[in-house]
């Protein structure tokens, strides 16, 4: 049985919600006030015992408990289902996805099989994540960060006669979680070009991120500082208006 013993009355209610009402394990979890993992574990136990609601409903508590009891050593011999570490790592980049949620889904996906407890699940994932290269360890949640900078090279904008009217600077914005990229051409790299590029990017993405991370541009920074650069008034008014925040990259640390 799971670590926190459930009363047979509650277990019957869990099975009724599953078999009679047809609720999902997540819906049963909310209705019964227990974890999805516990719902999955008991549902798997009942399935392994070839039970259905017609056979469970008339049983007394001790009779139901006896039918759900595993034979000796049955739960210790089988190997646990291994995690899909890359999938867990990728899913954690999505908004509102937690290890708790992914563990519950892992347990539900392997009904009747031996799975890891939540603490083991977390520790194994963290051990795996530690093996990643340093360049791969930075994680971003969906909608969290928008990185912005100007490309190093300008591009020619032609006039109607085939000549070069001016050389455009290329503003580039990238969402940290998905690498979804926005780009536009500007006349220069002044304050209005930075602000215009950021506004264009947010309109393109359909919303403002939690944090804007530009390179450390003089056009936006009033007080250059290696650790706490101060925003200029225009940049501060901009982030206030869009209810976001700006954290410029450290100088020479883009």
From TrEMBL:
InterPro entries per the UniProt record, alphabetical: HTH_IS408/IS1162_type, Integrase_cat-core, RNA_pol_sigma_r3/r4-like, WH-like_DNA-bd_sf
GO BP annotation list: DNA integration
Segments forming a coiled coil: none
Domain Integrase catalytic: 138-254
Domain (HTH IS408-type) ranges: 11-92
Domain of life, source organism: Bacteria
PANTHER family: TRANSPOSASE RV3428C-RELATED
Protein name: Integrase catalytic region
Native organism: Caballeronia telluris
């Amino acid at each position: 049985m799971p670590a926190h013993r459930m009363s047979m009355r509650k277990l019957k209610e869990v099975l009724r919600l599953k078999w009679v009402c047809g609720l999902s394990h997540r819906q049963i979890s909310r209705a019964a006030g227990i974890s999805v993992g516990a719902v999955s574990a008991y549902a798997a136990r009942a399935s392994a015992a070839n039970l259905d609601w017609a056979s469970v409903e008339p049983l007394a508590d001790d009779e139901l408990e006896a039918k759900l009891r595993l034979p000796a050593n049955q739960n210790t011999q089988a190997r646990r289902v291994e995690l899909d570490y890359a999938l867990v790592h990728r899913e954690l980049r999505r908004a509102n996805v937690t290890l708790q949620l992914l563990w519950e889904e892992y347990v539900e996906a392997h009904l009747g099989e031996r799975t890891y407890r939540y603490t083991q699940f977390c520790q194994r994932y963290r051990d795996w994540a530690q093996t990643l290269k340093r360049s791969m360890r930075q994680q971003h949640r969906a909608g969290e960060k928008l990185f912005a900078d100007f490309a190093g090279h300008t591009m020619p904008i032609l006039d109607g006669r085939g000549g070069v009217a001016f050389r455009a600077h290329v503003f580039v914005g990238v969402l940290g979680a998905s690498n979804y990229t926005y780009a536009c051409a500007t006349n220069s790299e002044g304050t209005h070009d930075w602000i215009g590029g950021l506004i264009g990017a947010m309109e393109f993405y359909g919303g403002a991120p939690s944090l804007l991370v530009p390179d450390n541009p003089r056009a936006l920074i009033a007080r250059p500082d290696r650790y706490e650069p101060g925003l200029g008034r225009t940049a501060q008014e901009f982030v206030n208006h869009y209810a976001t925040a700006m954290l410029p990259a450290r100088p020479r640390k883009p």
